Amino acid sequence: MARIGDGMLASRLRRRARVLGQMGRALRLFLPMIRDVLLRRYRPVPWGAFLWMLAALAYLVSPLDLIPDMLVLLGLVDDVVIVGWLLTRVDRHLIGYRAWRERQAGRDSGAGEDQGDGESSS
Known about the structure:
Layout: H1 2-38, H2 47-61, H3 72-93, H4 95-109
Helix pairs in contact: 1-3, 2-3
């Protein structure tokens, strides 16, 4: 019986680690993505990422919560869970941007033959 519990615990921890990774990745990529969009280096604009991030920020600053912040620990957990879920949505909308950045990094580190004007043909 302990093995089943241990396996379930390990599985849950792996899922949580994946979600935390998605949240961190979304936060790390969002500001560079804004810069690349504003400088017109990256198209199409991932509007979904902007909307989900706006929703996360709105939830953080909004005085309305599912669980009031007066209940100190539960109120903070509520904020972390909901904002974390919203950040995983941001991460999903940044898949194309991540792929583009990887192609750009490969182009920059590749041989001189691939170095053009920096514009993407797609």
